[in-house]
Amino acid sequence: MVAIYCRISGKKAEGKDVSIEDQEAQGIHFAARLGQPYKVYKDIGISGAKNEIEDRPEFAEMFSDMKKKSITSIFVIDQSRIERNSRIWQMFSYAILKYQCIFYIGGNLIDLDDEETRLSTGIISLTNEFFAKITSRKVKTANRLNAAKGKGHGITANGYKKDKDGYLVIDDIMVDTIRNIFKWSLEGIGTYTIAKKLNEAGVPTKSFQFAKKYIIRTDKYTGRKIKYPRSKVPWRGNVIYDMITNPIYKGDRHYGDVVAKIEGIISEELWDQVNKNLAKNKKNVGPKTKFHYLLNGFIFCAECGSDYRGKIKASGRNTTYYCKGKSQGKTCESKRGLNIPKFESFILNHLFESEELYKKLSNLKKDSDKEELLKEETHQLYKKKEEIDESQKHLYKLMLDPRIKDDVRDDYLRVKMDFEEITELIKKSEETLSMQSQVKRKARIDKIFGEFNYTLNFDEIKKSVHGIIESIQVQHLPEQKNFVVQINYRGFNKKSVFATDHNQMKWVNMSHHEVIPLTSEDKSEQDDLFDFLAKGKNWSKVELIDSLKHFNVWRDELESSTYPELLNEVKKLGHEGESVVNIETSNIVLNKEHIYNFNSNTS
Question: What region does 253 belong to: left with phi over 0, alpha with psi -120 to 50, or beta?
Fold first, then answer.
């Protein structure tokens, strides 16, 4: 596979540097010439003069892939994309030789094992470093001169924009909002309350003006990429505080030791008054408390599909995983949350305090049908990626035509985001396909179960849990005062369904069952199951089936029986001295003395 590395240190004037899009297009064209698949790595707004590989995320990822030998060659348009730092060049050259990777600059093979090539590229590296330092000095000097003239660079402050000549001028769209913020602060309203007022009034932040309409964030533990609309970016108290204390709003634009006079949005007297009064509005709350959430990013609502997110108040009175659907404007009936310590204790108990789940997962055979389905899905995703790539290239060419309107640029950015999303879907699909290997699955769960213990730190415990669980779906049944929870296991075509009441101390397993002779213990579990199902107002079989449709409780293992038929058969067999009981794990009863609370010592 060809690695295409693209880097640009910032927004350059036309003709001064090769755009990221051009670098990528040249790399893709080169990979097509070789007839090889490719992976694009893009560091945007990052200097090549940085001293550490880790300071350049995509460059660091490419280094990691080189070590794994998942890439066999690297393409850049010129050496300065790799570095403007001789130390980084030495490390890169060493890695190329050690991991036997082929290096191309602008399509030309660079043999770093050749002494003359090493000498010439070393000289180029020193030149790049020298050029970077000279350029940095020039840029800083130019920025100081521009700042003294009242010109801006980079992202402007809220309430300001740049005119066609680069001078900072007041942005009429946000000027009333800025003035209201200062007015409210002078009235004694705190910064977080001001943020809340703006959010409740639907006042957009500056973020909505950016060309890219979405922010992509990657969950630290799940790796899941989540797309947030910029229009939904809320005001925050710390942003309000930074705005109030910024002297630009009284007309003083600071750049280092340079202070330039520009048009102020408020008077100097008002700015001084508000900042003098600000300390009175600020509550002395001490350092912010950091809370631990074991399952954030993995719990989803069966009603509306939104995340369940942990929320703990400093008082400790409210500790719940709650559905975000209502706050996102969706109609969702999940009004009640799951108690965090109890729910996390149930999950840990289910995973690690019995060997039955481990044995069950260890003995599951590879699902050939699912493997074939995944292969076909991956193939279709690649086809879709090619179509999107063609659209992206076509729109990019149109953008170069000055006669084309701005909406083409918006279309290009939208298609580009679609390309990134489908690339991520392919990556996830290939990872899931890889997990279908019987040997890999067994090795993975052997490692997790074998190394787990409760003396691990929180991050290690969370990593273990997320290594087994793919996702958790939750349905709240308010009339029955119950929750139904489906656990999906990572890399296995396997699910478990549990149910509990609002107290969350007893969890009844409702997954796969089989008929076996009834023992007193089995009879107790059966009674628990049917007592649970019968609990609540006007519980009917139809309502039970409807409420569990999200969870596919009936499967091939239940043969052709429908759920009502199975339920009747269970009742009949119970009277005859046999029972349908769980063959996967027994019901789980939590002990009050053994509720795991990862936030009990948080301060």
Answer: beta
Residue 399's pLDDT is: 67
Residue entry with tokens 């348009």:
77
Report the C-alpha gap between 79 and 117 in whole angstroms: 13
- Compute the CA torsion angle 512, 516, 518, 519 (nearest 10 deg): -90
Nearest to 491 by CA among 357, 345, 370: 370
For CA atoms 536, 541, 543, 548, the dihedral sign is positive
Token pair 């019995």 is found at 354
Q: What is the DSSP pairing of strand 214-218 with strand 495-501?
A: unpaired
Name the residue with tokens 């969950």.
219
Contact 319, 339 (CB under 8 A): yes
Tokens at residue 255, please?
């750049």
Tell which wins on pLDDT, 308 or 580: 308
pLDDT digits (tens, 9 = 90+) for 481-532: 888 899 988 877 778 888 888 999 988 887 644 334 445 554 455 455 545 5
3-state secondary structure at position 99: coil
Could you identify the residue written with the tokens 């999200």?
550
Q: Please report the DSSP string for 406-427 in residue order.
A: THHHHHHHHHHHHHHHHHHHHH
Instruction: For residue 152, count other CB atoms closer than 10 A to its CB.
Output: 23
Phi-psi category of 519—alpha, beta or left, where left has phi over 0 and alpha has psi -120 to 50?
beta
- Please name which of 225, 236, 240 lies closest in space to residue 275, comparing C-alpha atoms: 240
Q: What is the DSSP letter of 114?
A: S
The string of DSSP codes covering 146-171 is HHHHTB--SSPPTTEEE-TTSBEEE-
Q: What is d(CA 235, CA 180) in angstroms, rounded to the nearest whole number?
A: 14
Going from the C-alpha of 474 to that of each of 11, 294, 463, 488, 514, the distances in angstroms are 45, 16, 21, 11, 25
**What is the phi-psi region of residue 305: left when phi exceeds 0, alpha when psi lies from -120 to 50, beta otherwise?**
left
Give CA–CA dist 425/377, Å, rounded: 10
Site of tokens 């639907």: 202
Average pLDDT over residues 216-237: 67
Q: Which is higher by pLDDT, 355 or 275? A: 275
Cα separation, 169 vs 415, in Å, equals 33
Are 422 and 218 a contacting pair, CB within 8 Å? no
Crossing angle of the two packed helices 237-244 and 191-200, in degrees rounded to 10: 110
Digit-coded pLDDT (tens) for 420-475:
788 878 877 777 776 666 567 778 888 888 889 888 888 889 989 988 898 999 98
Could you give the CA distance from residue 399 to residue 128 in angstroms, rounded to a whole number?
Answer: 31
Angle at 484 between CA 482 and CA 486, to 5 degrees: 165
Amino acid at 297: G
pTM attached to this predicted model: 0.51
Question: What is the residue-wise DSSP string for 409-476?
Answer: HHHHHHHHHHHHHHHHHHHHHHHHHHHT-HHHHHHHHHHHHHH--TTS-HHHHHHHHHHHEEEEEEEE
**CA distances (Å), 254 to each of 514, 537, 556, in order?**
74, 67, 70
